[in-house]
What we know:
The chain is an alpha+beta fold. The chain is about 60% helix and about 5% strand. It has six helices and four strands; from the N terminus they run αααβαββαβα. It has a four-stranded antiparallel beta sheet with strand order 2-3-1-4. The longest helix is centred in the first third of the chain and has 98 residues, at about 15-110. The radius of gyration is 59 Å and the shape is rod-shaped. It starts with a helix and ends in a 24-residue tail after the last helix. The relative contact order is 0.07.
Amino acid sequence: EITNATLHSRSITKETLCHWLSSLCCLLNENAIPLMEDAAKHLSRIDELEEQSRKDQKTIIQLQTEVISKRDDEIKLMKESLQLTVKSEMKSYASAVTKSCNAITNSCNAVLAPKRISSAIKTVAENAERKKNIIIYGVPEKTDEVLPALVEDVLAEIEEKPVIRDCCRIGFRKSESIRPVKFTLNSQDMVNQVLRKASMLRVKHGYQKIYLSPDRTAEERAAHREKLLLKKQANGKEETEDVTTIENSVRVLDSKVEV
């Protein structure tokens, strides 16, 4: 047995040392050398794996570069497509806006033409004056009549004494009909006040067939006539109409003109 004590012993001979060395070489041949050979194989494999890893990393870098390049190309294509779309949409929008502006300009030019402006001003003025008028239906017509006095008598029955500016019969005189009387007051408020009390005439002796109405336009008269017809149908009443033809040839046909 080889120990520290036997190695330093003076009784060890050369033959013993040679025997020990021979035994050591046998041990190395049997154990150490195979391990070293396996280690060498593993080192070679490690080198191969490291080389493969470097190749894989290079491949990965190359693929990443290609992906980035393709992504840049796709982004570029998307930008170009978006720019073309935006340009096309802007052209369409600009064309639509131009057409709209031209149409508005033409419309404004037509509306703001001097004749149109003059006609509009005239219509507004006529409507403003018309709102100050009241029409009376059913006042008996006489040759020597004094219309302002007749109107005052009618208004007195509903307890109103407004200032009457103008007063006249409207339409052409016919023996079989009574022409309405149109008179003008100072304000629309006074007209509304009188018309609110118009229904009082229905219970006044001698005034049951006299009716007050606003001075309506032809369109308003047609709409009012339609309203009355619908009301008659709803009420199931058969009423005759007896109102004079006025100068513009539009007839208001109703025996009971309501405000």
